[in-house]
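Reader question, answered in our methods column.
A reader sent in the components of a multi-part assembly and asked whether the whole thing could be modeled at once rather than chain by chain. We filled in our standard form and ran it. Here is what they sent:
COMPLEX SIZE: two components
ENTRIES:
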Amino acid sequence: DAKTTQPPSMDCAEGRAANLPCNHSTISGNEYVYWYRQIHSQGPQYIIHGLKNNETNEMASLIITEDRKSSTLILPHATLRDTAVYYCIGGAQKLVFGQGTRLTINP
Amino acid sequence: GAVVSQHPSRVICKSGTSVKIECRSLDFQATTMFWYRQFPKKSLMLMATSNEGSKATYEQGVEKDKFLINHASLTLSTLTVTSAHPEDSSFYICSAATSQETQYFGPGTRLLVL
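And here is the structure of the entire assembly that came back:
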C-alpha cells in the first residue's frame, strides 16, 4: 500500500472550489488513488477514485499527475456540509488510512 | 450507490461479556468485507479482511480469538468482541467491497464497555 501525505488542515470559503492535495510518490502501477471523507462520528463516505486518468462524478473531480506521484481532489462549489476529514489512499484491495486533511468550509 | 448497514449503532455492555456487530451490504453482494476500529481523534485502523466462506485474515497485533469474524453469506459479516474489556471501547466500522473492489463503509458501531 502506498504511503500518502496530506496537509493536516485546510480552510475554504463557502461557494469556492476546494482543492485538496495528496502526495503518493510510492504508489505502484496497479494501485488506485481513492478519496473518502468522514464527517464526525460517521463511517467514511466514498468520493471518487482513479488509476491514471482524471475522473469526475457528481461529488468531485480527481486530477492525477502524469507520473502518478500526486493528485488533487476538487470540490467545485464547497458547502458547509463538505466540512469533514478527507482521506487520500493509494491501494488495491486493502485501504490503509492516514491522518487525512481536516477541511473546514467557512461561511 | 452501494449501501452498507451496521447493527447496532451503539452498544453498552459489562466487562467480560461478548458483543456481536453485524455488517450488511444492502444492495450488492460483497465477496470481501473489512473491519476497522477507530479511537477518538485517530484515523481508521484495519483489523481484518473477511472473505465469504473462508477464514478472516487479521492484521498484525489483532487477536483473532478476541475478535471473531464470520462471513457466512455474500451480504453479511459479523464481528464478535469476546470477553470485552474497557480498552475495547471504540468505534467499529465495516466496509464491503463491490466487484470492482471499491469499498463502501457502514455507519459504524460505537461500543462502550463498562
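What stands out: The radius of gyration of chain B is 13 Å. DSSP finds no helices and eleven strands in chain B.
Send us your own complexes using the same form.
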